[in-house]
Amino acid sequence: MNGIFITFEGIEACGKSTQANYLYNYLESRRINSILTKEPGGTILGDLIRNIVLHETIFPVAELLLFLADRNQHINETIKPYMEKGYVVLCDRFYHSTYAYQASGRKIGIDIVRKFNELVIEGCRPDLTFLIDLPPEVGFERKRSANLVLDRIEKQNYDFHYAVRDAYLRLAGEDERIRVLDGMRPKEELKKDILSIITETFPNMKERITL
Ligand SMILES: Nc1ncnc2c1ncn2[C@@H]1O[C@H](COP(=O)(O)OP(=O)(O)O)[C@@H](O)[C@H]1O
Ligand SMILES: [Mg+2]
Predict the structure, then answer these.
(1) Ligand 2 centre and the CA of 94: distance in Å?
(2) Is the distance from the beta carbon of residue 190 to the nearest atom of ligand 1 less than 6 Å?
(3) What SS3 state is found at 11?
(4) Domain presence at residue 211
(5) In 10 A of CB 173, how many CB atoms?
C-alpha cells in the first residue's frame, strides 16, 4: 500500500468532521491526492447500513455486526483501492469507534469485538488516528446550541458516553499511533496541531503533490 490512512475519532460533536474537512481542504489546496470518507457510510451499501444503524431499534450484537459489515465493504470498495493508488485517505470514524461504542459502551467486550474486527479489516489499519477528546456534556451542549437533532446512539445516557470516552482514552494509552487532542481548544488551533503532527509523522508527504 502506497497511501496514508488517517482516521478521526472521538465522541459526538468533539469536532471530527470539522477537522477532517479542514485537513481534506488543506491537502486539496496543496494538490495532494486525497479522499475524505466516513463510517458508517462511504459506499452505497454503507449508506443503507448508516440509515439503519442510526435510526432503527437494534440490539447490541446486531448493531455490532452491521457496523462490521459496513467496514468490510468500505475497506474493499473504497479504502484499499485508494491506498493502492497512493492517496491520503481520511476517514471520519473507523474501528476505534467499534471498540469504544460496541465493546465498551454496549458492553459486548473487547476480546470478541477484536476477533470480529480482525476478520473484517483484512489487515487494513490506520497509520495515524486523531482522537479528539471532549467531556460528553460539552458535546451535547454543542449539539443543543447548533439545534442539531440527536440520532439513536447520541440519545444514550451520560454513563454510556462517559464509558465511550474512557474507552477511547484507554485505547490511546496502548497505541502510539493514536494522538489525543484536547477538543475544548479552538478549532483553528486544533487544525494547526493536526497539520504539525502530520508533517512530523509523514515528512515525505510533500512528494505526493501532483502537478
Ligand atoms: N474546537 C471546537 N470548539 C468549539 N466548537 C466546535 C469545535 N469543533 C467543532 N465545533 C462545533 O461543534 C459542532 C460539532 O462539530 P462536528 O465537527 O460536526 O463534530 P463531530 O463530527 O465530531 O460530531 C459543530 O457545530 C462545530 O462547529
Ligand atoms: Mg461528524
Answers:
(1) 12
(2) yes
(3) coil
(4) no
(5) 10
Give the CATH number, domain containing residue 89.
Answer: 3.40.50.300
Residue 1 has pLDDT above 80, yes or no: no
Q: How far apart are CA 50 and CA 70, in angstroms?
A: 8
- Give residue 207 CA to ligand 1 midpoint distance, Å: 31
Whether the model clears a pTM of 0.85, i.e. scores above it, the answer is yes
Q: Whose CA is nearest to atom 25 of ligand 1?
A: 146
Q: Which atom of ligand 1 is nearest to the CA of 10?
A: 22
**Cα 6 to ligand 1 centre (Å):** 19
Atom of ligand 1 nearest to the CA of 132: 22
Q: In this structure, what C-alpha cell is assigned to residue 55?
A: 435510526
Range of the domain at 63: 4-206
- 13-27, 146-160, 188-202: which range is least confident on average? 146-160
CA distances from 90 to 39, 81, 83, 116 (A): 11, 13, 11, 23
- Distances in Å between the Cα of 54 and the Cα atoms of 49, 63, 156, 163 are 8, 10, 12, 19
pLDDT at residue number 47? 94
In a domain, 124, yes or no: yes
State the total domains in the chain.
Answer: 1
Residue 15 near ligand 1, beta carbon < 6 Å: yes
Q: Please state whether the peptide bond connecting residue 81 to the residue before it is cis, i.e. omega within 30 degrees of 0.
A: no
